Amino acid sequence: MDVRRRLTLLAVTIAATPLILGGCTADRKDATGSASGRAPDPAVTVTPADRAKDVPVSAEVGTSVSHGKVTGVKLTDDKGKQVAGEPREDGSSWVPSTPLENGRTYTAEVTATGKKGRTAVGRTTFTTSPKSTRQAIKSTLYFTGNQTYGTAMPVTVAFDPPIPKEARATVQRRLFVKTDPPQPGTWSWVGDGKQVEYRAPDFWKPGTKISVRSGLAGLPIGKEFIGDDDRRSTSKIGRQVALEIDNATKQMSVLQDGKLVRKIPVSMGKPSTPTSSGKMVIMEKHDFTTFDTRGSADPYVVDVEDAQRLTWGGEFIHAAPWSEGDQGHINVSHGCTNVSVTAADWLMGITKVGDLVTIKGTEVQLDQGNGFTAWNVSWDEFAKGSALPVPPGLKPAPTLSPGHPGAVAGGSSPAPAPSASGG
Length: 423
What we know:
Pathway: Cell wall biogenesis; peptidoglycan biosynthesis. The protein is mostly beta strands. It contains four helices and 27 strands.
């Protein structure tokens, strides 16, 4: 009995020993297949696909990385020349600084670095398409370089023909805005795609530098069109000036940094040709111009001085010596805001393109898109017009200063084509 018991104990000991040893020596792997305690190596996926052909000249180098981050991108052409560029803020791709050339071969090399300095390199070689025979959509960037704009100046791009709804996200992704100091915003499409505008939740801070790139050259837009050009501009924001015009009093209040500096009598559009009520932005300024409405129901040709455009449809603030007796009392214009010669000259000296103009109490409301109308709706409504997700952290605008009254609603969008009319 004692012998059998000793044999049994010995068998248990021998059988248990391999299990104990096995527990000390086996490789336990995590869900990624890496040995326990060791970080997985980085992995890189690069686009366009290797050996891809007919790649648009608007192409970006897609950089998808797991277990690491991109630490270097090198793009060279078939002559060995390196292409300049920079990554998107979200790290999804690397964007060449200029359009690629048609019918050329490029090689992209993307380096990713993981924990403990481990690296991985992804490579791809692709060839761009020949020059496209598609019709180019004409784009116009209304943000000129080396200027000083008012604090309400939106970045505006207009298109002819309009951008179809299904292509707006593609176009918007190629519109870039950088601000220094940072003041993030979003793009918003107006009406049927003839215009897209960019602004932040609140007005630009004075002194802000804004750099814009409309990188549309060669971009496929739907099945029929391509983008026309690649444009850049950088300008700054000046001091804050706002004009408030009240039809009830026939007075214009001029405010600087929220403080009233002058009141000016005005005469606006008569009932048959009323001035629009809404929040507008000064679009352009002319020391001298001619209003020519021949072909309209009320044709006339008149030369005017010190004219400041507010709408595509032809509403201006301008000198009107013929109506000085009416200013402050009765509306007699064809839709413009008439002021005296002296007041118009003074206004030209204090205002800038991009200054906010608020008109209230007239018979009609401003159509959304009839001018730079980014402030004519609330921030929430504006952000709904983006074809891409709005950047996180952007919230509705705070309560505005007395110089910036609340937004009013807008309607449909006319074509963003300047009219020479006025009155």
